[in-house]
Write a structure and sequence with these properties.
This is Flavocytochrome c:sulfide dehydrogenase. The protein is of the alpha/beta class. The protein has 2 domains: about 180 residues, FAD/NAD(P)-binding domain (3-Layer(bba) Sandwich), CATH 3.50.50.60; about 130 residues, FAD/NAD(P)-binding domain (3-Layer(bba) Sandwich). The protein is built from 9 helices and 25 strands. It has a 5-stranded parallel beta sheet, with helices on one face. It has a 4-stranded parallel beta sheet with strand order 13-12-11-17, covered by helices on one side. The protein has a 3-stranded antiparallel beta sheet with strand order 6-7-8, with no helix packed on it. α1 packs parallel to α8 and α1 crosses α9. Bound molecules: flavin-adenine dinucleotide.
Length: about 400
């Protein structure tokens, strides 16, 4: 079985392979895939296309919002990846992929030909699904669901909020990246507010009626932030349908909520390039075959990370990292005419509630037919010791260090 392998457990044919693989997007899926394609076959010609020269991780960005980490500590460059033989990094944006002529159009540079494309563009937002929630509205009600200027904007708004103010977080409908992260954000905002503006309140308006770690979060909120965080279920008026940036209000049908700082996390779909290339289904995500992650809509295009439909796997950085390795192994196996080893997929996510209190969910998956199916794991135990909760907070740091080294080579 292959699980997070650093080398393929079979011998590659001696014949050198000069196939050109283009990886689109240098985030959790894309950067990992470049690293592992190169490890599995250093003769491959690999081009990574990523607009930004620095990558800012969403994991730990909630800590930046709470003032627990500096922005500089969640920022990485591509220099070490680029220093590898046969790896070329182009800082540009892919604007089109012609799957028939196998050509990629870039916003600025000249077009590229490819043998295979790995697409890991993350998510885009379904602007307008919530009335008045357009791109411009995010300058007033930030989403902070892509790390960077939006993260800093939300942090600044919380710093400027009066003591006794209300911070609203709205949790979107449908599949979205990082299912536990809105609740982690509520927790860490509470950590910041409890220290700095203790009369403040946090209102979590949820489109859903339930979420996996609900019991764990509710227990922690009661203990750490009593009476500070209120959670409203979708069926009880939590599902936002309209926003009003002028009056600092959001609406769930006829019920209105007024906030001093409002974080609207919009509903999501695959990154726009996946939509443009015609790779998405009716829900806006990309269906792929296993174990290769090849698109069911176009040959030689592989979609990994948040953008793809990956069975039981949630949309997480760790999931994207695991998928990237399996996809790289499938591409290299295919090029060398070797049978792909049986894949084992893994994912985990830590939610930090204060510097000494964290919970997690770790899962392992295998293929059942063509479907990635959870075979073991799940969330932390509800009744655990203070020592374990503290240990989880330390493990979260270790997890972060190792996954970012796996992407950016340390
Ligand atoms: C607040 C928050 C906290 C989170 N915490 C965790 C956590 O603790 N653990 C965890 O596992 N996950 C966490 N996540 C989820 C994690 O960030 C995502 O699941 C992960 O980033 C998905 O990887 P990806 O490769 O699909 O997309 P990304 O990592 O977003 O990478 C996509 C890249 O593609 C590039 N791109 C997009 N379009 C184009 C184009 N047309 N041309 C070229 N490049 C393009 C983008 O610039 C970007 O760099 C969190 C998310 C949020 C929002």
């Amino acid at each position: 079985a292959i699980a997070g392998a650093s080398s393929l457990p079979f011998a590659l044919s001696a014949a050198s392979n000069t196939a050109h693989i283009v990886v689109v997007g240098g985030g959790f899926g894309g950067a990992t895939c470049v690293n592992y394609l190169h490890r599995f076959d250093s003769n491959l010609k690999i081009t990574l296309i990523e607009p930004s020269k620095t990558f800012i991780t969403c994991p730990f960005s909630n800590k930046v919002i709470a003032g627990m980490e500096k922005m500089s500590s969640i920022q990485f460059t591509y220099q070490k990846l680029a220093a590898q033989a046969n790896v070329n990094i182009v800082h540009d944006r892919v604007v089109d992929i012609d799957t028939t002529s196998k050509k990629i159009t870039l916003a600025n540079d000249k077009p590229l030909s490819y043998d295979s494309v790995v697409l890991s563009p993350g998510v885009s937002f379904k602007w307008g699904q919530i009335e008045n929630n357009d791109l411009a509205s995010a300058n007033i009600f930030p989403h902070a669901w892509k790390a960077g200027t939006q993260t800093l904007l939300l942090a600044k708004q919380l710093q400027a909020m009066p003591d006794g103010g209300t911070f609203i977080i709205s949790v979107p409908e449908g599949d979205f990246r990082a299912p536990p992260a809105p609740y982690e954000r509520a927790s860490l905002a509470a950590y910041y507010l409890k220290k700095n503006k203790p009369k403040s309140k946090i209102l979590v308006l949820d489109s859903q009626d339930n979420y996996e770690e609900k019991a764990l979060f509710q227990k922690a909120w009661k203990k750490l932030y009593p009476d500070m965080i209120e959670w409203v279920a979708g069926s009880k008026g939590g599902k936002i349908t309209r926003i009003d940036t002028k009056n600092s209000q959001v609406f769930a049908g006829s019920t209105s909520y007024k906030g001093d700082v409002i974080n609207v996390i919009p509903p999501q779909q695959a990154g726009t390039i996946a939509i443009k290339a015609g790779l998405t289904n009716n829900n806006g995500w990309c269906d792929v075959s296993q174990p290769s992650f090849e698109s069911t809509k176009a040959k030689s295009i592989y979609v990994i990370g948040d953008a793809c439909v990956a069975g039981d796997m949630k949309k997480l950085g760790h999931a994207a990292n695991s998928q990237a390795k399996i996809c790289a192994a499938a591409i290299v196996s295919n090029l060398h005419g070797i049978k792909m080893p049986e894949p084992v997929y893994s994912s985990s996510v830590y939610s930090v509630l204060n510097p000494k209190y964290a919970i997690s969910s770790a899962e392992v998956f295998r293929l059942k037919g063509d479907s990635i199916t959870k075979v073991s794991g799940g969330p932390s135990k509800l009744n655990t010791s203070k020592k374990n909760l503290k240990r989880e907070a330390r493990f979260a740091k270790g997890w972060y260090k190792s996954i970012t080294s796996d992407m950016f080579l340390g």
